[in-house]
Design a protein that fits this description.
324 residues, 10 helices, 20% strand
């Protein structure tokens, strides 16, 4: 699915024409794990979640989402384009970072990070991190990229969520016209879907959030999607280097992260405790809201939406409007 980003961007006019600050409000790249350190805390504690996941895996995705079209499909041209966009990103600042460490689950059945016997007593190492990045170029000026990653969360997934701007002057009020979102689900259940507002079937004019959905499992029934490492091992055998980090790309990534990592190591960035199995620190919704992300009030469940649930949500929204 990560390899599909370039094809999605550079072969589809519908996306190429709106892939910029004029149309996109914000980009969220999320990496969630349901499990904790599971006895590997001694190793993990030396690095923390930002070094372990964000600085490398998520930044690879960010560079593919944000880069300009490379001169060709040659590996060096692709890596040149990735490095160029990283050079436009200033170092992340501590005020735009949210850190967390998982505690016990709310029912007490699942252990905290500090319960791992391999973790040093009183460790402040983060198992969750969210951070905002800004790209200073004409395409992305003013569009925050929010990267989130963590362990012991509510679900296992990796996804890219591109949220488009509001329609502006509109016949329909904002509470019934949700923002469009292009979602690229990397794992599990690989999919690409575009969230949009539709009329709810029936005689009224209630709206419902639906999607144009490309789910790989249902669309490509006679094919298996290779594991990520299968792809990389084959690339290594074939000498295909575009999916591997070049030294100058690595230098740029560390330039962006190193100042705040030093502050984290010195304990200058607070670490909030969150329950095992939750969505992360309680401040997360407020944090992503600071960078323009809006979660709509209408009920939505991918890949299915119950008509009864949608009608109930529309009714509740109308009731709330009448009270205002």
């Amino acid at each position: 699915m990560v390899k599909n980003i370039m094809i999605l961007r550079f072969t589809n006019q519908i996306f190429g024409s709106c892939w910029d600050r004029d149309h996109i409000s914000n980009v969220q790249i999320t990496f969630k794990e349901k499990i904790g350190t599971e006895g590997r805390g001694g190793y993990f504690d030396e690095f923390g979640i930002m070094r372990d996941v964000m600085q490398n895996h998520l930044f690879q995705i960010l560079s593919l989402i944000a880069m300009e079209s490379p001169a060709s499909l040659n590996a060096e041209d692709i890596r040149n384009a990735k490095v160029d966009v990283l050079r436009r990103i200033p170092p992340v600042v501590e005020s735009e970072v949210l850190l967390g460490q998982y505690g016990k689950s709310e029912d007490g059945s699942l252990p905290s990070y500090l319960d791992d016997e391999t973790v040093p007593k009183g460790s402040k190492t983060a198992t969750f991190a969210a951070a905002a990045f800004h790209i200073n170029n004409p395409r992305w000026e003013g569009v925050p990229f929010v990267l989130k990653c963590g362990k012991a969360l509510d679900q296992q997934k990796v996804e890219i969520r591109i949220q488009f701007k509001d329609m502006g002057s509109n016949l329909f009020q904002k509470d019934v016209a949700a923002r469009n979102e292009l979602v690229i689900r990397v794992q599990p259940e690989e999919a690409v879907y575009l969230k949009m507002t539709q009329k709810l079937p029936g005689l009224g004019m209630e709206t419902v959030m639906s999607e144009l959905d490309l789910s790989y499992a249902s669309r490509f029934t006679n094919l298996s999607v290779p594991d990520a490492y299968e792809n990389l091992i084959l690339d290594a055998i074939m000498g295909e280097q575009s999916n591997f980090v070049r030294s100058d790309e690595l230098d740029e990534a560390w330039r962006i992260f190193t100042p705040v990592l030093h502050k984290i190591d010195r304990g200058q960035v607070p670490v909030e405790v969150y329950p095992y199995g939750s969505r992360g620190p309680k401040q997360l919704a407020e944090f992503v809201g600071l960078f323009g992300f809006e979660r709509h009030l209408q009920a939505y469940s991918w890949p299915e939406t119950s008509q009864a649930a949608a009608a109930s949500a529309a009714s509740a929204s109308a009731s709330a409007d009448s009270k205002l």
